[in-house]
Specification:
By secondary structure, the protein is of the alpha+beta class. The chain has 5 domains: 5-42, no CATH class; 55-169, Nucleotidyltransferase, domain 5; 182-287; 290-428, no CATH class; 440-515. Helix content is 48%, strand content 16%. The protein contains 18 helices and 13 strands. The strands form 4 sheets. Strands 7-6-5-8-9 form a 5-stranded mixed sheet. The protein has a 4-stranded antiparallel sheet with strand order 1-2-3-4, with no helix packed on it. A two-stranded antiparallel sheet has the order 10-11. α11 packs across α13 (397-418). The longest helix is centred in the middle third of the chain and has 33 residues, at 180-212. It starts with a strand and ends with a helix.
Length: 516
């Protein structure tokens, strides 16, 4: 029996495991001050957590070769076969045929293997695994090498054997294989991002080199985007500058002017390539039919749906489609959010949370959704932005941005799944909170924690709880001097617990009437 835990109030809890005589189920009963409460029911039949297959295949793949292990059930034992193969097309296909022959010839009872149904587990090793996935087809399971690591010893044979055991026992679910058309879209997006980064690097190098010769024109605007600033810089590195610097110590030497000319040419070239890639990406998205819950829809329709979400532009929509692809590959919206890197994981030891860490997930989608959330919070023109701003005022800006980005991720998931444009009808945060209309002085009587903020409220013209809730919803309380994180938390608690405050107010009014 677990040791009883003492509460601060003096109550004691005990948990007792017993068996229901009628159903035969194992029941865990919690007793608090003599009162019993069922907290968990266990079925003695158990729950299947992993199937046991008749065969398993594990592949440890590298650039020039792969290590292959096949295990088959033969009556009461398991037979293991190992081989290595080269990574050219013919060798990869020969390894597949060898695997099928092993399973057919050595399994007992006999198994008739369909090549399109072949199961195998392979490590996620960059792009080296992609040719195997394309040529083998079947039902692959791609897992992180860190998960497949077995103890301190490491070799290709050990890794392949560990992967094979996972395949035999069905430890990990089947992986989603990226279609070829989506791979093409990802490559276009990757090249577009690379050109964009290189153009930014050129702009930064121009600013850096101008400073070395005394020019501080970057303070007046971008040296590549603002026309007046760029025109002045281009004049300075021309053969005969028409504008003379104010000081003789400032000026670009003739033998260095070619550097600035080349940097501007590179910047314009990269920007032109970015616009070309944008057109190709848009054409690619429009040419693909995208899966939804009700069937496939055109790329134009799905782009219209996704860009209707607040803060989500074409680039975020492109990236979402390229990496999420279809919502049908995820069982729930929460699993989609975890894939995008919005899944805080608790490290639990001895029943206590020792630390909280967030999985990285898909970095491109994660980054763009966080940028969209940051823009919404900065503008505060949308209900989503105002909600995120309220969280920011309560604590960390990073946590507020992450929470809003996760909400955007869930919204995009359901929008694509249902093929419906965004609307705020399903969100309570889009509606201004309805609170009890009493004066700030009366609120202080109900909750004394508000007393320290009564003076800032009244001095700024906020004399009722209705006004306080309105200013909180619109995000204007940040301008009130004297209100900080604790005040925001207190106001949020007041808005979320209206029934309790209405009850306290009625009790106070009834007490006044009884006193008269």
């Amino acid at each position: 029996m677990p040791r009883a835990k003492k509460r601060r109030t003096g109550e004691t809890d005990t948990s007792v495991i017993t068996i229901d005589r009628e159903t035969g189920e194992i029941i865990t009963v919690k007793k608090v001050n003599g009162k019993s409460k069922i907290i968990r029911i266990e079925n003695e039949k158990g729950v299947e957590v992993m199937p046991a297959y008749s065969s398993g295949t594990g592949i440890d793949i590298h650039r020039s070769f792969g290590q292959l292990t096949v295990m088959v059930r033969n009556q009461g034992s398991v037979l293991e076969f190992r081989t290595a193969f080269n990574t050219d097309t013919e060798s990869i296909m020969a390894a597949k045929e060898w695997t099928i022959d092993i399973i057919k010839n050595y399994s007992d009872p006999k198994v008739n293997v369909n090549p399109d149904e072949l199961r195998y587990t392979i490590e996620s090793t960059g792009d080296y695994m992609t040719p195997v996935l394309l040529l083998w087809g079947g039902k692959p399971t791609v897992i992180n090498p860190n998960i497949a690591k077995a103890g301190t010893r490491k070799s290709d044979i050990i890794d392949s054997r560990t992967l094979c055991l996972s395949s035999l026992m069905g430890t990990w679910p089947q992986s989603y294989v990226i279609p070829q058309e989506i791979q093409g879209l990802r490559i276009l997006l990757s090249e577009r991002d690379s050109c964009n980064k290189l153009s930014t690097r050129c702009a930064n190098r121009i600013v850096n080199r101008l400073l070395k010769f005394g020019y501080t024109v970057a303070r007046d605007g971008s040296v590549v985007k603002k026309k007046e600033v760029r025109k002045y810089v281009e004049d300075q590195f021309s053969e005969t500058p028409s504008i003379k610097p104010l000081s003789e110590k400032i000026g670009i030497p003739d033998d260095v002017k070619c550097v600035f000319n080349d940097l501007y040419k590179d910047y314009d070239d990269y920007k032109m390539r970015v616009s070309v890639y944008d057109e190709k990406i848009l054409a690619k998205v429009h040419s693909i039919e995208w899966e939804t819950q009700t069937g496939k829809v055109s790329g134009e329709r799905i782009m219209k749906v996704l860009t209707s979400a607040p803060g989500v532009g074409p680039q975020a929509a492109f990236t979402w489609l390229a990496y999420v692809i279809t919502p049908l590959r995820f069982e729930t919206a929460n699993k989609c959010a975890a894939y995008c890197g919005f899944d805080p994981s608790n490290r639990v030891s001895a029943g206590k949370v020792s630390s909280v860490s967030k999985r990285k997930g898909q970095k491109y989608v994660h980054t763009l959704l966080c940028q969209s959330a940051h823009n919404l919070i900065s503008r505060r023109s949308e209900p989503f932005g105002r909600w995120g701003y309220q969280l920011k005022c309560q604590g960390s800006e990073k946590k507020a941005k992450s929470a809003l980005a996760r909400r955007l991720c869930i919204a995009l998931y359901y929008m694509q799944l249902k093929n419906e444009e965004f609307n705020y009808d399903m969100y309570s945060i889009a509606k201004e909170p309805d609170v009890i209309d009493i004066s700030i002085e009366e609120l202080c009587e109900l909750n004394s924690d508000f007393r320290r903020y009564m003076k800032p409220f009244i001095s700024n013209g906020i004399v009722t709880t209705k006004q306080m809730a309105h200013e909180f919803y619109t995000g204007n309380l940040n301008n009130v001097h004297g209100l900080g994180t604790k005040a925001y938390t207190l106001i949020r608690d007041f808005i979320g617990n209206q029934k309790r405050y209405q009850k306290l107010y009625r009790e106070k009014e009834n007490a006044k009437k009884a006193a008269k």
